[in-house]
From TrEMBL:
InterPro entries: ATP_synth_csu_bac/chlpt, ATP_synth_F0_csu, ATP_synth_F0_csu_DDCD_BS, ATP_synth_F0_csu_sf, ATPase_proteolipid_c-like_dom, F/V-ATP_Csub_sf
Subcellular location, record wording: Cell membrane; Membrane
Superkingdom of source: Bacteria
Residue ranges occupied by any V-ATPase proteolipid subunit C-like domain in the UniProt entry: 35-94
Gene name of the record: atpE
Biased composition (Basic and acidic residues): 11-21
Disordered as annotated region, ranges: 1-22
Name the UniProt record assigns to this protein: ATP synthase subunit c
Membership in a protein family: Belongs to the ATPase C chain family.
Transmembrane stretches, start-end: 70-95
SUPFAM superfamilies assigned to the protein according to its UniProt record, in alphabetical order: F1F0 ATP synthase subunit C
Site (Reversibly protonated during proton transport): 82
The entry's keywords: ATP synthesis, Cell membrane, CF(0), Hydrogen ion transport, Ion transport, Lipid-binding, Membrane, Transmembrane, Transmembrane helix, Transport
Function noted in UniProt: Key component of the F(0) channel; it plays a direct role in translocation across the membrane. A homomeric c-ring of between 10-14 subunits forms the central stalk rotor element with the F(1) delta and epsilon subunits.
Length: 96
């Protein structure tokens, strides 16, 4: 028997060696990884929205006469950025 962290580890000889052993620290972590993955997936769209809206405000302050076109383009960009957040949500729900 091999020893890991002072505890003996049983080796499996069945047809499925990838199955987790009892007492393994990795057991049952798949749901937690999906939650962390969705949390990380929301960071990108959040940063993207902040940049898009901030730059639109700067451009509107510099050239107020094009505010209408800038707002339209900003909304299209924001919608595309939000799609990334929704894809992260769907992926998180599919793999849990």
């Amino acid at each position: 028997m091999a020893r890991t962290l002072g505890r003996p580890v049983r080796r499996t000889t069945d047809a499925h060696p990838e199955r987790l052993q009892e007492g393994n620290a990795v057991e049952g972590i798949t749901g937690n990884i999906a939650t962390v993955g969705y949390g990380l997936a929301t960071i990108g769209p959040g940063i993207g929205l902040g940049i898009v809206i901030g730059q639109t405000q700067i451009a509107t302050a510099r050239q107020p006469e094009v505010a209408g076109r800038l707002f339209t383009n900003m909304m299209i960009g924001a919608a595309l950025i939000e799609v990334l957040g929704l894809l992260g949500l769907v992926a998180g729900l599919m793999f849990t």
